[in-house]
Amino acid sequence: GVVSALYDGGFILTLGEWDSPILVYTYYASEEIKAQLAGIEKGVGVEFYATKSTKNGLIQLKDIVWCKVYPEVINNNNYSSNDITSQMDDYQSDYYNYIRYIGRLEISGNYYNVVVNGASFTQGAIHYPIQDLSGYNGKEVVVEGFYAGRTYSSNSGLYYIQTVLTDISLPDVGGSTEDVVPDDDIVISTR
Q: Could you give the 3-state DSSP secondary structure of residue 180?
């Protein structure tokens, strides 16, 4: 498969042109496996044996026992996103769909929540990002990434659309976006 997105704990893998992407959980992998996966980047090929399980209602792979990384970038994974901004309260899927939404990023400790105007009981949640997003805190942002499940917090009484981040930017105002985190390893795109 091809690595399509990275987060702190694993990555999204595209298995083939017609297959749905799948989350690969590496947090508890052996040190040997972690060393083999160290430095992987979006677009590289990975082959491995792992256990199939579910999390947040979606299939994931974990407990990797063998892997091989093909370090050359073989695919840049340009996906067409589904804008779910107006569907936040109702959105749910059985697949790791590529989604997009707009809202205000609120960072609190390890939580990266996106408050979407018009959503009554659902927020976006950037799933353990590897990027430094502090420059976006409190700002209106466009989030793109892979849907990683819908979760509920009894503490807040809210649902969260878990998102493995691939792109974050400020909304288009006059033709382009602003890079507020210069030289970071995140894609800042023009809309």
A: coil
